[in-house]
Specification:
The structure is a homodimer of 521-residue chains. Helix content of chain A is 24%, strand content 22%. The first copy, chain A, is of the alpha/beta class and 521 residues long. Chain A folds into 2 domains: 160 residues, Glutaconate Coenzyme A-transferase (3-Layer(aba) Sandwich), CATH 3.40.1080; 237 residues, Glutaconate Coenzyme A-transferase (3-Layer(aba) Sandwich), CATH 3.40.1080.10. The two termini of chain A are 28 Å apart.
C-alpha cells in the first residue's frame, strides 16, 4: 500500500485512486480476474404515445433539442469521434450549453481531437467540469497540466461500451453527429457531405442514454437505410448546415510510411506472421491506419498472393489497401470499426463483404464473448514497452497524456498481439524498464518487432517454437533494449510529476489499471 | 364492475382478469392512455472471461445446452415462428425438456403452428404448464377447451417485444432456430436448407433472455454475415441434422385468391387507396400474404404503373409480388418483417433495398416511436368487425381461439387501416353487433371493404371527404350489415361459453384488452 492519500496498489503494482469523480472504483485485479456483478443499465421506458405519430422528430435547433431533453447543471453529455478531427458537433454542443447558462457538465466523448481545443474555454469557464474519454492532443495536455477540475478517465472503445452498458457512466443526453438521417432519427455514416463510414461509437449512447439527439446536415425521407443508429432510440433530430469539415473527416488517401526503418519493421512483422504459420487459408488479422500498420498490410498482401492464401476476415480501421484486398478476393470480409479514407467509405456502402461493426460486437468485455479474441494477429502501436512486455499507449516519455486508448486494449485479446515499433524515437528509447503508464499487461502482448530484431514474449513458447529455424532476427527483449541504450546514451530520463493524479486509465473490465499524474513545470 | 370473480371491466367495456398466471395486470385504459413507468428489463452482466476465447460455443447436443443453461422446473423457455409450420425446433426443445424430467415450464413462442400439436403431450403431462404466445390451430383449440393449466396470453409481435423489454415476461432460456450460424452464435435466416429470410421475432429474446441457445443445421466459419442475431448475446450453439421442413417454411409460390368476391374486394381496396389520394409519389403501404392482400397489391401495382407513381417503401411480409415491385423500381424499399416465399428469401439476400426489420423497429409501442404509424395504408384481415369498427382477429364466431394476433394490432396505428373482408363466411355474417373478442379498438380501424360496399369510419371525415364524388360504393356499415343479415337469415348465433377464462388478449401497451372463455360442449 502506498502512502499516497486515496491511492491503492493494484494487481499490476500500480497506484490507482479508489474514488474517481465521486465514484468508487475497483482496482485492476489481473487479466480476466474481475467478474462483474449486477445487471445492465436500465433506461426508463418510453411510449409511442409521447412521440409524433408521423415520425417527424425534427426540432428547430440544437438549443431547442437540448432544452426538450431537459438539460440541467451537472448532466453528462456525450459526443462521438466518427468525424475525427473534422468534427463540428462537439464544439457546437458546448457552445449551446454555455449559451444556455448551464454549468458543471461532464463531457463524455468517445474521443476528442485537436479540433476540440475550442472547448478549453468551456472547461475554463466551468461549463464543462471534466472529460471522461480519450483526449488526443491539446485537451490531453490541458489535463496533464492539472487544469481540469475532475479526473480524466480514459477507456478503450470496448471499455466505453462496457461502462455505459454496466451503468458506470449514465449518459443524460447523447448528441450523435449523423452524416445522413431521416426525421425519425434513423442514421448512417455512408452518405452525405460528412460521410464517415459508420457510427458504431455512438451505439451504446443510443441504447442507454436518457435522451438522444441526432444532428445532421443531410436529412432524407424515411427510411434512412441502413439504420446504423436506430430512430427507435432517438428523441430529437436537429438539422444544421454542416456537421463537419469533409477534408478532415477521412483522408483522401492514406499515407504509407517512407521511413526505411519503419518499412523494415513492417516487413519483419509480415514475415513473422507468415513464418509463425499464422498466415494460412481462413486466417484473420487486424490492420490499422498508421504508416507502419499500412505497410505491414501491403507486405502481407504480397505474401498472401505469392502463397495463394486467402483470409476469412480482416479487421479494420479500413483503408484503400484493405478494400483492395477485399475486392481482389484476398479476404471474404472486412469487419470494420471505422473507415479511415474515402475508399473505405465507398466500399462500406457498396460491398456486402465490408461489414460495419461496433464496440459491442467487437470489443465489449462484459458480453458473452466478443470478436477481438477471434482475430489471429493484430498489429498495434505503443509509446513505450517494458522488458516484461507491458505497454503504454497514452502518455509520451515526457509524461504528457496525448493519446486515447482506442481499441488498443481490446485488441490485445487477439491470438497473437504484435507491436511493430521503432526501438527509439527522437533518440529516446521506446524499450524501457518500466512504462510511464501501464495500458496493456505484458501477458497479453506477444511479440515486439523493432528495426533491431523481434522479441517474443517468453510466455508464448508456441510462437518461439514456430519460428525456430526461420531466418527471422529473434532476440531477447533485454538485448535489444541494451543496444538501444548504447545508441541513445542510456535509459530515458523519467518524466517529472507532481503528486496530483489527473487521470485514471481503465482496463477493459472497468477496473483501474493505472493513473496519470500532473506533469511538473 | 362485473360479478365475475377476479374480473374487471376495462375502458372498452370488456371483462378482463386482474391477475394472469400469478401476475397483476393493468386493464386496457384506452388507446394511448396507459403510460409505462419503470425501466427496461436488465439482464445480468456477462464476462468474456466466462466464454471461450476462440469463440467456439458449440456444445454436443440440445440437452447439454439446456443443462448448461441451468434448466429448472418452472422456467420460461422461448421459441420462434420464423420456420412457421415447418419448424422442428420447438418440438425438439420440449421433448428434451421432458426427457430431462423437468416440469411446469412456461412456453413462450412468438407463435405456435399446427406442427406444434406434438407438444400437446407435454401440456398433458405437465412438462409445459401453459403457453403465452399465439396459438394457431390445434393448440388454440386445446386452450379454448379449457385444458391448459395456466391462461393463454396473446400478444401482438410488438406487444411481445414490449413485454420482454419491459420485464413483464422474463425469459430464462431462449432457443433460437437459425438457418445459418457460426460457432460464436452469429446467425441469419438468409441461407441454409431451412432459409426463412430473417430472425426478427427472436431479437427481444436474444437481448433479454438469461441464456440464449442457437440451434442450427448450417454451421459456417465465423463470421456469419449478416448477424441478424448477434453472437455477443448467445451462450451456446447446437448443431442438429435438420431444424425444419423446407417445404413448410416458405411457400414455393404464394397463391392469389381465385374467388370472384375476394378479387372484387381486393380491387375495391386498391381503388380506395387510389381515389382517397393515398397512392401518390413517396407513399407507403403494407401488403400481406393472404390471398386478398396479395390480390390488392397486384391491383395497386397496376394502378401505380398506370399513374407513374412510385412508393417510398412497402412493408412486408414479403412475397414475390412485392419483390417484383422492388425490382421494377416501383418502390425504393421493402421493409420486411417476414418473408413468405422463396422469392422473398432470395431478394432479402440480394437486394440492399429489401431490408430486414424486427418487432423492435416496426412495432414496439414502448419505444421512442416505431415504424407502424408511418405507413400510409395497411390492409389487414379480421374474423369479425362490429358496427363501431371494433375488430376481432383471434376467435372465430364459434368462439374458438384459432389465430394469433401477429402484427395486426401494431399495424392499426398506420395512417389508414383498411380491412378488406367478405361480409359473410359460410353463411355466417362477419359484420356483427359486438365482436366475440375485442382485438382492435374501432377508433383505429378506418375502412371496411366488403364485396357489398365500402364502409368508412365516421371518425375519418377526411377520408369521407377524399372519396366524395368518386364512383366507389361507399355505404354505412350498418346498411351493409343489414344486407348481410337478410342473406344469411339474421345475425349470427352467439357462441356458448363456460365461465372459465382461458386466455387474455393484450393490447400493444401490455394492458389487457379482452379475455377469452372456455367454449361449451
Amino acid at each position: 500500500m502506498s502512502a499516497d492519500k486515496g491511492l491503492v496498489e493494484n494487481a499490476a503494482g500500480r497506484l490507482v485512486p479508489t474514488v474517481v469523480n465521486g465514484k468508487e472504483q475497483v482496482p485492476f485485479a489481473g487479466v480476466a480476474k474481475h467478474k462483474p456483478s449486477g445487471a445492465r443499465a436500465a433506461p426508463s421506458l418510453a411510449s409511442c404515445a409521447d412521440f409524433p405519430a408521423d415520425g417527424n422528430k425534427v426540432v428547430k435547433d440544437l438549443k431547442t433539442a437540448l432544452k426538450a431533453a431537459g438539460l440541467k447543471d451537472g448532466m453528462t453529455i456525450s459526443t462521438h469521434h466518427h468525424l475525427r478531427n473534422g468534427d463540428f458537433v462537439a464544439n457546437m454542443v458546448f457552445d449551446a450549453v454555455s449559451e444556455m447558462g448551464i454549468k458543471d457538465t461532464m463531457w463524455f466523448p468517445s474521443a476528442s481531437f485537436p479540433c476540440h481545443s475550442h472547448n478549453i474555454q468551456h472547461l475554463d469557464s466551468g461549463v464543462i467540469h471534466h472529460i471522461e474519454g480519450s483526449m488526443n492532443g491539446p485537451l490531453g495536455e490541458y489535463c496533464s497540466r492539472g487544469k481540469m477540475r475532475g479526473l480524466g478517465v480514459l477507456r478503450s472503445h470496448g471499455g466505453r461500451y462496457q461502462a455505459v452498458q454496466d451503468g458506470e457512466v449514465h449518459i443524460d443526453i447523447a448528441v450523435i453527429a449523423a452524416p445522413t438521417s431521416d426525421a425519425f432519427g434513423n442514421s448512417n455514416g455512408l452518405t452525405g457531405p460528412a460521410a464517415c463510414g459508420l457510427l458504431g461509437f455512438a451505439l451504446a449512447d443510443s441504447q442507454y442514454a436518457d435522451k438522444v439527439i441526432v444532428i445532421t446536415d443531410n436529412l432524407i425521407p424515411f427510411p434512412c437505410i441502413p439504420w446504423q443508429i436506430q430512430g427507435n432510440y432517438v428523441d430529437h433530430v436537429v438539422v444544421v448546415d454542416k456537421i463537419g469539415d469533409r477534408e478532415k473527416i477521412v483522408s483522401g488517401t492514406t499515407k504509407i510510411t517512407r521511413s526505411p526503418d519503419r518499412l523494415l519493421i513492417a516487413e519483419l512483422t509480415a514475415r513473422f506472421v507468415r513464418e509463425a504459420g499464422i498466415m494460412k487459408d481462413g486466417f484473420s488479422f487486424q490492420g490499422g491506419a498508421g504508416g507502419t500498420a499500412l505497410a505491414f498490410a501491403i507486405y502481407l498482401r504480397g505474401m498472401m498472393k505469392e502463397a495463394g492464401v486467402k483470409a476469412r476476415f480482416v479487421r479494420g480501421g479500413s483503408t484503400r489497401y484493405l478494400v483492395e484486398m477485399l475486392e481482389e478476393g484476398l479476404t471474404d470480409y472486412i469487419l470494420d470499426g471505422q473507415t479511415f479514407d474515402l475508399e473505405g467509405v465507398r466500399s462500406m456502402g457498396e460491398n456486402p463483404g465490408h461489414v460495419w461493426t461496433s464496440p459491442f460486437t467487437s470489443y465489449n468485455y462484459h458480453g458473452k464473448g466478443n470478436f477481438a479474441s477471434q482475430v489471429d494477429a493484430v498489429v498495434l502501436g505503443a509509446t513505450e514497452v517494458d522488458v516484461n512486455f507491458n505497454a503504454n499507449v497514452v502518455t509520451h516519455s515526457d509524461g504528457k497524456l496525448l493519446h486515447g486508448i482506442g481499441g488498443w486494449q481490446n485488441c490485445l485479446f487477439s491470438r497473437c498481439t504484435i507491436l511493430p515499433i521503432p526501438s527509439f524515437r527522437d533518440r529516446i528509447p521506446v524499450l524501457v524498464d518500466e512504462v510511464t503508464t501501464l495500458c496493456g499487461p505484458g501477458e497479453l502482448i506477444d511479440v515486439i518487432v523493432t528495426e533491431r530484431g523481434i522479441a517474443i514474449n517468453p510466455l508464448r513458447k508456441d510462437l518461439l517454437d514456430a519460428v525456430k529455424g526461420s531466418d527471422l532476427p529473434i532476440r531477447d527483449i533485454r538485448d535489444i533494449k541494451a543496444d538501444v541504450e548504447r545508441i541513445c546514451g542510456g535509459a530515458p530520463q523519467k518524466p517529472r510529476f507532481e503528486d496530483k493524479v489527473v487521470a485514471a486509465i481503465k482496463w477493459v473490465d472497468g477496473t483501474v489499471i493505472d493513473s496519470v499524474r500532473q506533469i511538473s513545470g
